[in-house]
Every structure is written in C-alpha cells, then in structure tokens.
Write a structure and sequence with these properties.
about 190 residues; about 35% helix; single chain
Length: about 190
C-alpha cells in the first residue's frame, strides 16, 4: 500500500527493484504481486529472469536448478518474452537491467527513460571501482576461480532484424541494438 501511495503522490518518480534469491513459492507470489508488478525498472540475473517467466506461466519451478550459463540468444528471447508478457499484464515495467556473462545489459523504453548509455557504462565501472582494490588482492579476485563465467559469444542474432547478427569484437565495450519496436538495449 505504501508504494501505491508513494507512486500516486509522485507520479514522475520511477521505482527500480533489484532481485534477490527466493526459495518459497508463496513469498515469491507476494513479491510478484506487491513489488514486481509495481516497479518501473527491474534488475536481475538470467536465472531470476527465468524464475519470473516460469512464475508468470504458472510453472512451479522456483526451487528447480536454473541453467547458470544460458545461451545469450536465449537470454535475449526471454527478455522479449518478458516485455511481451508485462505488456499483456499491463505492468508499468519499462526497463530491465540484466547481468549475463558477467557483463551488463539494459533494455528500456526510450519514450519513458533517458538514453541508457551512461547508465550501462557506470554499471560496468562500478564493480572494479568499488569491489577491487588497486594494490591488494580483493576477495572478489581471490574467489574468482570458484565461479565459472561463460564466454561471450562471437556474435548473436539481432532480436529485431531476422537474418542479421550483432558481432562481438574484442576491445569493443559497448553495443546498442533494438530489442523490438518499443525497447532499445545496451550491452
């Protein structure tokens, strides 16, 4: 109720929610009802995206293991599906910030949000700036060997233009493309 009051009191204020881990279906249903469905912007990883889609499709898979290295094209297609379903559900969400392959991907409705180029660059700089000390080996670096981060693909299918590909080039840090007619993305 507080969020509804806050939203109506300041209709231009956009609400961003970062996801966490869930293991209880009932709690996640409440989170969906009172948080996800009221947010303008969501931040999550690719497993959490799959969790939301499963929930919206009435599939009780919350505690099933999710693929920790999904194909990048699958992630893009899930994003398209997410925005299509959120439109059908008439949800206010108009921006999604994902973290696939240890990188950052933001898709947004440019009619509702400023250009996200600066936001995606700041996001990608925040981890090394705040989590890695320049002269000491940080916990992040020490623990890196315990995590497997999939390699970025060499290219991926353009989500809007069938038959076209977006080439990933070594040294290029920023890519932009249209997810569909309504959403622009930066990777």
């Amino acid at each position: 109720m507080r969020q509804k009051q806050k939203k109506s009191a300041a209709p231009d204020t956009m609400i961003h929610i970062e996801f966490g881990d869930f293991s209880n279906e009932e709690f996640f249903a409440l989170y969906d009802k009172y948080v996800i469905r009221k947010a303008d912007s969501l931040g999550m990883n690719e497993q959490e995206l799959q969790m939301v889609l499963d929930h919206w499709n009435n599939e009780k898979k919350l505690n099933e293991a999710k693929n920790s290295k999904p194909n990048f094209e699958d992630i893009i297609m899930q994003l398209k599906q997410f925005f299509e379903m959120s439109k059908q559900l008439e949800l206010p969400v108009s921006r999604m910030h994902l973290h696939p392959y240890g990188s950052f991907l933001i898709c947004y409705d440019p009619k509702k949000w400023e250009d996200a180029k600066e936001a995606i660059i700041k996001s990608s700089l925040a981890v090394p700036h705040y989590c890695v000390h320049p002269s000491e080996e940080s916990d992040l670096v020490k623990e890196a060997d315990y995590f497997e981060i999939a390699e970025m693909p060499e290219r991926f299918k353009h989500p809007k233009n069938p038959g076209e590909y977006i080439e990933i080039q070594k040294g290029q840090l920023l890519y932009d493309f249209e997810l569909n007619d309504d959403y622009k993305c930066y990777l």
